[in-house]
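Quick check before the chapter quiz. The format below is the same one you will see on the exam, so make sure you can read both the input and the output lines.
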Amino acid sequence: MEVSIGDALKEFLKKSKLKNGVQAMQVKEAWEKIMGKTIANYTDKIEIINTTLFISTNIAPLKNELIYQKTKIIERVNEALGEKVIKEVVIR
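Here is the expected output.
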């Protein structure tokens, strides 16, 4: 049975602890497209731990805006990743 390198890599990542790190990188790369340039500029850190997306910012009004948009963030990030990875968003 032949398997493409892409499919083999996806399968490896599915079983690997690297998956969250790779997905976090994908989210970081797409963050500006997902949330817009202004929000992206003031976001300090993005991490994925298990099924939770952690977003860090020091801008209080932005924290409030992100908290208000949690559901939309989950939908957009999962769409960008091509699978339902994120179930929760924590703003800090």
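If your answer matched, good. The chain has one domain: 17-91.
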